[in-house]
Amino acid sequence: MTSFWVGERVRLRAVEPEDWRAFQEFDAYSADMRAADMLHPPRSEEGYRRWAAEQAVAGSVGDVFRLVIAAVEDDAVVGTVNTADSDPRPGRFSYGIAVGRPYQRRGYAREAIVILLRYMFGERRYHKCEVGIYGFNQASVALHRRLGFVEEGRLRDHEYFGGRHHDLVLMGVTAPEFAGAHPLPAAHDPS
Question: 176-187, pLDDT tens digit by residue?
Answer without folding.
Answer: 999 998 887 665
